[in-house]
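Chains adopt folds. We examine one example:
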Amino acid sequence: MSDSLPYVLVLYYSRHGATKALAERLAAGIASQAGIQARLRTVAPVSATCEAVDPEIPEQGAVYASLDDLRHASGLALGSPTRFGNMAAPLKYFIDSTSELWLSGALIDKPATAFTSTSSLHGGQETTLISMLLPLLHHGMVYAGVPYSETALTRTQGGGTPYGVSHVAGTRSDRPLDDEERELAFAQGARLARLTLALENARRQAS
């Protein structure tokens, strides 16, 4: 990863791997655009106890996000499985720790998007995406969904919404991404990368 290129932070929580698969597909879409890169980060699970029991670095997969990963990102893709129509607690816990970024306005005018995975087709995909949208708006970010020019939105029999890409993982959380879900996730990442570059260039010209 080049330190000279702006990056989009792809920040997610995944319990069984479906949201992680979406995150990787969005990251591929971001990386398909010249002049920008994707940075994959996850968050640690939360516990009912007050003791930190997880290692500082996960044994596998993306490393845990820091506030600096978010502070220096030029764009953000936020992903979570649904929990009763809402984002999962570990991701909310991390977002709740970003008050200093809100106070400094560090994320204002940066583009963002969201993605999710559910066990069932009507398992709260859209409400979960909206639950992730709310703190992004409070941070002053510019939200970018998936436009209907992406024709897979009208073909999909699984996941996919104009609020952000989604996936139906099945009751055992073992259903892989289908062709339309993969197509939409890639397109969403590519669109976010293009918007990030445009806004990054505008900020540089203004300064």
The chain has seven helices and six strands. The longest helix spans residues 179-206. The CA atoms of residues 4 and 36 lie 9 Å apart. The helical segments are 18-31, 67-71, 89-95, 99-104, 125-138, 152-155, 179-206.
